[in-house]
Amino acid sequence: MTDERAIDRLRAALDKTLHDHWRELEPICEGFGYGATMQLASDQWGIKLATIGATGGELRVGPCVAQTVECGCDVPHQCEWCCGSQWLTKHVKAIKQLSEQQ
Q1: Which residues does the chain have with pLDDT short of 50?
Q2: Domain of 91, in residue numbers
Q3: Percentages (nearest 5) of helix, strand, coil residues in the chain
Q4: Beta-carbon neighbour count of residue 84 at 10 Å?
Q5: Could you tell me where the beta strands, DSSP code E, fall in the chain?
Q6: Is 40 exposed, middle or buried (0-12, 13-18, 19+ CB in 10 A)?
Q7: Do residues 17 and 53 share a domain?
Q8: Fewest C-beta in 10 Å: which of 10, 51, 70, 94?
Q9: What is the pTM of this model?
Q10: Whole-angstrom Cα distance, residue 61 to residue 40?
Q11: Which of 95, 100, 99, 73 is nearest to 86 (CA)?
């Protein structure tokens, strides 16, 4: 019982923290654009990593879902086409399908 109560308290604290951060971020997203905000955050993350000599750890933001199709990979986290996202642009999907036919 004690562990369950501790977990519930932790979840409540996390929910409040996330809600507080969202209230700060929402006006930025609404004013600047959600995609632009995500791209900027990704770029800044990459810059920060570069200052410590690390590269490639940042999340990359890609095209909107409306411009993508499912990759169709069997093992998503081992797929070199979608890198685990399970989504490709239509053009990349066509190239993938051509390469699989050869």
Answers
A1: none
A2: 62-102
A3: 65, 5, 30
A4: 13
A5: 68-70, 87-89
A6: middle
A7: yes
A8: 51
A9: 0.55
A10: 9
A11: 73
